[in-house]
Every structure is written in structure tokens, then in C-alpha cells.
């Protein structure tokens, strides 16, 4: 009885911390205003250069002549692997089940302004990256906060981020994802969590042995396929319910600014709750402002930070504007959104089942959760490893990979209710120092972005031309490390 009381007390205290971090007094305004400020400083770069960025990342794929560990496309898919996860399926359903359909609108806003944040942190990740003792590239907030912001403030912010990122890698990037894979396979195919945990232990360990090169190759192969399968299923559902889409969109926009009345199993929500859930689940899904994707961006072969920043920016567009939108529209259009918060975990599966039949719909969602969660584990293993190296030195790489692989088995075979709250808190603690750093460094980001895009607006400059531009403008960054 004492243990139960302690667990309940711990959960209650963590919930209070989580609610404060993600409240309208802290992260919600900081995330939105930072993204808005960067959007203004960068002249709406996410809108002006979206198609150029998509072409460069998805069609060109490789920036010839650039130094780094993986291609731009592999850096993009590694970041997508880490972000397109359970949050895109269960997280969206949770936001709508608590905040109402209007929460989806605030997820869109978070994504749109978050693209400027994602561009900025990826730009800085490449701009201030370094070569480690093994010759591999290392970058991200743990590097650019201390290198870009002189004095004790930069050092403090960098260490704050480093510690939070290591914790988060075992929460959002491991325990919760491993549990989601095990639950999905058990519910759909009656596979024992122990078997799932053992298989994942072997698969994750095998991939991590090869480092970022191996992770990049694996994610570039199956991340696009898993997204296309999920989107394809969603398109079929929406096509079969095309007549309900206008009403669903009207409900989303109306409830975003007026709140949602109680209906069915839904208890009702106000504007602030819709905004709070939309922003919190949005950042959980696309990670814009958290700084995590900058770690993958820093490893990319690129001739200039602006080029990789634009490629990385498309990750938020794909994650939120495409995948999250698909989940949200399917839930609202099929009318299952008001079945109650307690049904959030199964809400997306019910929506797909109602749309295209219980067998196909449930299978698509279950397999999507499995693949999305597994890919998130791979992406976050690299994020955590880089921060472990930053904190303890390069020797920490192998022990971290071994511990991370073992925790995957724990997540798959253990009830981890507290882990979800820890993951939310760690996400917020990562975002805080990174957002402060983005605001401080926004002038540098804006100046160097404008200078480069004036020189190469379509990202087609040859490596030798880019190098000449850097020399002529006396830019301290070089493609060689």
C-alpha cells in the first residue's frame, strides 16, 4: 500500500511539473513566439524556399563536395525517423481527445512557425559543428550553444541541454517507443512482449554497431516507405468520407477559437486547453525548437549551413503538415474524436477501421506504430550518444550504445506509465535552453542566411563557387572540418 501511495504521489508531482512546463506561462508562448520571431527575422524562409528545399533534399539528395558523415538525404531521414513516431498517431489522438478538434489547428501553427525554428537550429548545428577525436562530425545545441554564445551563459545552456537530451533519449526515444512496438504487435498479432523485446534488442544492437553511417542507411531505406504506407491508408479513408471533410475542417477551425462543447465521451474544452494540447503534442511530434534534429543535420555532407538548414526544415513540413494532418483529419472526419480521453490510445485505429474496415484499418495503424516507433529508437540513439560523448568524452559511445540497447528490452516488457510523463518533461527541458539560444543567435542566423540566399537562391551553386563566396565574404565557417 505504501508503494502505491508513493507511486501515486510521484505521478501527481510529475504531472504538476509537466503541466507547468507546458503551460501558457512558459513553453507555449516561448515556442510560438520564438518561431514567429525567427519567421520574421528570416523573411518567412519556410514559405519562400519550401519547394527549393524539398527539391534539394528529396531529389538532389547529395551535396557534392561537402564534408560530413552522411548525405543530406540520410540526415533528413534520420531526423524523420526520430520524429515520425508514436506522437504522429497516439499523440495526435491524445491532443484531440483532450483539447478537441481545435487542437489540430494549433498543431498546424506550431508546425508552420516551427519550420523556422527547425531551419535555425539545423543551420547552427552545421555552422558550429566540430570533428571529434575519431574524425566523426559532432554538432547540435550541445555544441552551438557554448560555441556561439560566449561566456558562462552559453556553457550553462549547453550543459542544460546535454543533460536533458541524455534523459530524453531513454524516455521519448526508447522506453515509450519500445513499449509501443510491443503493445502493437501483441494486440494485432498476439506476439509476446518478451519475444518483441528480444528481437528489438538484436535489431537495434546490430544497427547501432555501425554508428551514424549504419543508422542513415537503414532509415533512408524504410522511413519513406513507412510514411507512404500510412499516408496511403489515410487517403483511402478520406476518399471514402470525402463528403464529411468540409464539416470536419469547419469544426477544427471553429473549435480552435471557441472551444468545444461536451459531446459523447468528450468532456468539453476551452480555447487554452485546445492550444495547450495542440502545441505540446505538436512539439512532441515534430520536435521543432527542441534542437534534437540539429544533431543529425550536423552530420550531413554539405557545402554550407544554409543548404542543410533548408533540407532539415522540410522534416517539420512532412511530419506535421502531412502526417499529423492525415491522422487528425481521419479522426475528425470519421467522427471518433469524441469517444473520450481514455480511448485515445485506440482512437486512430478505430478511425482507420471505421474508414476502410476493421481488419485492414487496424493492421495499417498497428504496423505504422511498430515501424514509426522502431525508427524513432534508431534516430534518438544517435542523439543521446552524441550528448553522452559531449558530457563524458568519446569513450562513452560504446557504453551508451550497450545501455540504450538493453533499455529497449526493458521498455518492451515493462509497464512504463511514468516514462510518458518523464518524456514530456525532458522534451520541455531540452527545448528551454535551445529556444533561448535561438533567440540570442537569431541575428547571426538572419545575416548569414540572407547573404547566402542572395548569392545562391536556388541552391545550385557548385562547391568551388560556394568556397569562393565564403572566402570573399570572410565567413569563418568552412566545409572542411
From TrEMBL:
Protein's name according to its UniProt entry: Putative sodium/alanine symporter family protein
InterPro entries according to UniProt: Na/Ala_symport
Origin: domain of life: Bacteria
GO molecular function per UniProt: amino acid:sodium symporter activity
Subcellular location(s) per record: Cell membrane
Topology in membrane: Multi-pass membrane protein
NCBIfam families listed in its UniProt record: agcS
Ranges annotated as spanning the membrane: 20-40, 153-175, 195-215, 222-242, 262-284, 317-337, 360-383, 403-423, 429-446
Main localization (coarse): membrane
Key words, A-Z: Cell membrane, Membrane, Symport, Transmembrane, Transmembrane helix, Transport
Pfam families: Na_Ala_symp
Any one annotated GO CC term: plasma membrane
Family membership noted in the UniProt record: Belongs to the alanine or glycine:cation symporter (AGCS) (TC 2.A.25) family.
Amino acid at each position: 500500500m505504501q508503494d502505491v501511495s508513493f507511486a501515486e504521489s510521484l505521478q501527481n508531482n510529475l504531472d504538476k511539473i509537466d503541466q507547468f512546463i507546458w503551460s501558457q506561462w512558459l513553453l507555449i508562448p516561448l515556442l510560438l513566439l520564438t518561431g514567429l520571431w525567427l519567421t520574421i527575422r528570416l523573411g518567412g524562409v519556410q514559405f519562400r524556399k519550401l519547394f527549393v528545399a524539398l527539391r534539394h533534399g528529396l531529389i538532389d539528395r547529395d551535396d557534392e563536395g561537402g564534408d560530413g558523415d552522411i548525405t543530406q538525404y540520410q540526415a533528413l531521414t534520420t531526423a524523420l525517423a526520430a520524429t515520425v513516431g508514436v506522437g504522429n498517431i497516439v499523440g495526435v489522438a491524445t491532443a484531440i481527445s483532450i483539447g478537441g478538434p481545435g487542437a489540430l489547428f494549433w498543431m498546424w501553427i506550431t508546425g508552420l512557425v516551427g519550420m523556422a525554428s527547425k531551419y535555425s537550429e539545423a543551420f547552427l548545428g552545421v555552422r558550429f559543428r566540430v570533428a571529434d577525436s575519431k574524425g566523426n562530425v559532432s554538432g547540435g545545441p550541445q555544441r552551438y550553444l557554448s560555441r556561439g554564445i560566449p561566456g558562462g551563459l552559453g556553457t550553462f545552456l549547453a550543459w542544460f541541454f546535454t543533460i536533458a537530451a541524455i534523459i530524453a533519449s531513454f524516455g521519448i526515444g526508447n522506453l515509450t517507443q519500445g513499449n509501443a512496438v510491443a503493445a502493437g504487435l501483441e494486440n494485432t498479432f498476439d506476439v509476446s512482449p518478451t519475444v518483441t523485446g528480444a528481437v528489438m534488442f538484436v535489431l537495434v544492437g546490430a544497427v547501432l554497431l555501425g554508428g551514424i553511417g549504419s543508422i542513415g542507411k537503414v532509415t533512408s531505406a524504410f522511413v519513406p516507405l513507412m510514411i507512404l504506407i500510412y499516408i496511403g491508408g489515410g487517403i483511402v479513408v478520406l476518399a471514402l468520407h470525402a463528403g464529411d471533410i468540409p464539416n470536419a475542417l469547419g469544426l477544427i477551425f471553429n473549435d480552435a477559437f471557441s472551444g468545444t462543447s461536451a459531446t459523447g465521451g468528450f468532456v468539453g474544452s476551452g480555447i487554452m486547453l485546445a492550444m495547450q494540447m495542440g502545441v505540446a503534442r505538436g512539439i512532441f511530434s515534430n520536435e521543432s525548437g527542441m534542437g534534437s534534429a540539429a544533431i543529425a543535420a550536423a552530420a550531413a555532407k554539405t557545402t554550407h549551413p544554409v543548404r542543410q538548414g533548408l533540407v532539415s526544415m522540410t522534416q517539420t513540413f512532412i511530419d506535421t503538415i502531412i502526417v499529423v494532418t492525415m491522422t487528425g483529419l481521419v479522426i475528425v472526419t470519421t467522427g471518433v474524436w469524441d469517444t473520450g480521453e481514455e480511448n485515445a490510445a485506440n482512437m486512430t485505429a478505430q478511425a482507420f477501421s471505421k474508414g476502410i474496415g476493421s481488419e485492414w484499418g487496424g493492421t495499417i495503424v498497428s504496423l505504422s506504430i511498430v515501424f514509426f516507433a522502431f525508427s524513432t529508437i534508431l534516430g534518438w540513439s544517435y542523439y543521446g550518444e552524441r550528448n553522452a560523448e559531449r558530457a563524458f568524452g568519446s569513450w562513452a559511445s560504446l557504453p551508451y550504445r550497450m545501455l540504450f540497447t538493453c533499455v529497449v528490452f526493458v521498455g518492451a516488457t515493462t509497464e512504463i506509465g511514468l516514462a510518458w510523463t518523464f518524456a514530456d518533461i525532458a522534451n520541455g527541458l531540452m527545448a528551454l535552453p535551445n529556444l533561448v539560444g535561438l533567440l540570442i543567435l537569431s541575428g547571426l542566423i538572419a545575416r548569414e542566411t540572407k547573404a547566402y540566399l542572395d548569392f545562391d537562391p536556388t541552391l545550385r551553386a557548385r562547391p568551388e563557387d560556394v568556397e569562393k563566396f565564403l572566402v570573399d565574404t570572410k565567413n569563418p565557417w568552412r566545409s572542411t572540418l
